[in-house]
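Project standup — Tuesday

K.O.: blocked on the structure for the chain from last sprint. Re-posting the sequence here as requested.
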Amino acid sequence: MRLTFPRVLRSEWSKLLSLRSTWLTLGVMAVVTVGLAGAVGYGVHRSVLGGGGAPDVARAVSAGFLPVDFVVLVVGVFGVLQMTGEYGTGSIRSTLTAVPRRWPVVCAKAVAQAALTVPLMTVVCLGSFLVCQAFLGADGASLGDPQVPRAVAGAAAGLVLTGLLGLGVGTLLRHSAGAITALVAAMFVGPALLGAALPADRADDVMRFVPTVAAQAMYSVDGSGNPFKTFSPAVSALVLAGWVALLLLAGTLVLRRRDA
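H.V.: unblocked you, prediction finished:
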């Protein structure tokens, strides 16, 4: 039987869907995200009742996507484990024996992961926004407000790309503990230290290229919720996509030059 990319993709799709951890991880992530959005909306509503002032559209949208800043790590780790999990079980040997060229494996994993996470993250982000605004009531934003649909799409795209970023890190490092540590450092520890260390007049120029900052800019309205001046949402999406492409390419090149 001739080996083709559709067959490799079908194999990776089957593996992804057959893992109980896939549904457990993504299911818990979805419930936690929407639940936290409701809690944030309730908290903001209580603040308004206490005289804190009603939020504008930008702040209302930011509140709806605040949980995304926390669950984004879960999505990134999920991506890491798509590759490192096979190294942990040893099944990577049979995978690479069946696909000796190796690059189709990485591409198929990326396509399968994106195909699963795009609709899921869209539903999660839309639900997160709607639940938060339901608690805010008349003080909240709506899907009819300018930039809100784009913010929902940006939040979903940011999560999808972060998952692929994790896949790239996992492919490059192949060890779960090391890859997850590197991902946490790149997404949280590194940006915090870099932002504090850079001179104030250079921070904005540098931090807008950081993956975490770019992802946040994708779902912000009027730049709210970000301490740094960022690119537009569209350019920020290109920045994050560039990081994904770079890591997946680097991981593929390393995978072709090492043993399973």
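K.O.: great, moving the ticket to review. The chain has a mean pLDDT of 90. The chain is about 80% helix and 0% strand.
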